[in-house]
Amino acid sequence: MANNKEIFFHFSWKKPFYLRFNQQKILKECEITLPRTAINEWFKKPTTLRIILLIVGTTTLALLFDLFGLGAGSIGSFTFINYASNFTNAGTFIILLYSPLLSSDGGIGVLSSRLGTGLHLGSIQTKLLKNTESYYTLISAVLTLGTFNGLWIGLISYITNLVVSGTSRIFNPLPFIVIPILTLTISSAISSQITSLLAFFVFKKKLDPDTWVYPTMSTINNILSTLFYALMIVILQPKNWFTETGVWTKITAPTYFMLIPVGLYLGFVGYIISRNYKKKDYLGILKQAMPIQSVTLTINSLTGGILSAADKALTNLRGLFLIYPALIDTLGDECTITSNTTSTNLALGSIPAKLNAITDKDLWTNLVGVGISGLILHLFYGILGSLIVADFRNMGVVIGIALGINIFGYLIVQSVIYFILIIGYRKGLDPDNIAVPIIASLSNLVCSALILLFTLPFGY
Description:
The protein is mostly helical and 460 residues long. It contains 17 helices and no strands.
């Protein structure tokens, strides 16, 4: 085989789908160092094991950006623990909103998924300006979804606060309007542009946006959401809302001041709706995505209550709380990679819309390879998180919980999402509109529930 000859073989999700790799590019991405003869022999017969190892290498590289999720964890850990150690009720309020805000991508999942499909089908071009009407309609729908997410999270979180917070419940709904809207809409506005640029760049480089874009953007969106949320906490000072006995008394003046930017952004979204409400594609995205996101965001808001029940464990196991965003992020990204490639595969007609399609060699090898990549990263998170907070005594516990979350979480979420994808597609629904919100919600719910379950035996 000549050195520059392109290599053709069936790879994971598209059948027939032939990835063209230069040998040096393969070596660089998968970090394999072998003699040239061995390299040639390696690719002459792409056995199942070799395909899985290649998927593991490629997916691990795509998921490595999730390491920056530790940055979001550091910000969240500092904010929560700082308040929890001195102002218990403020800490409860913070974590009640933190979980749903962290797991809501503001429509970025829908954007990245539909970008991948649109670029493959040619309905979207690789440029921000003078793109197709389909692209701008998609952006408008994503910004609308981001606003809807913020309003819905605020509503459900406010109700949850009234039910579970006892004497420290906050009766004024204003914080539950201001914080989610400003946090999610600003993050969504910035992330949508970065997502588009990244998808265009990846596609131009002849890589698959379905594999590379969402894992990167989910991490960036988590960091942005955490940063803006932490900024809201600093500005609004919820520690001053409670008496020393933990009874809520008032909302501080900065909270009312934040109504100005909230009103301006809602006016902007109203303008977007007025320009697009007659467009079939715009309404189609909202009609399919909003009901799903209503359910998933409700679950996410209730998950905040579950995570609050594990606040003692998160305070004692600081390494676990630090890696919490990365655990959710990577678990969601694993399932999103397989979901996006499956939805593109269904759109291209490469696999039948049947549950037994999972027995296809290209499909199940992709599932196995992606799962192994997530397991490797979760192991690394457990070690690195414990080292960052210098908690060597609990390192084994943190590593065990991280691995358990990946193994059981991946099996649970992946099984549910695969069933929904196939059944939804057969019912005429677009997988790109329904898959990612469900994945984000389930990843958050399963991860939080497993943390609570795994920490119970240790008495935290």
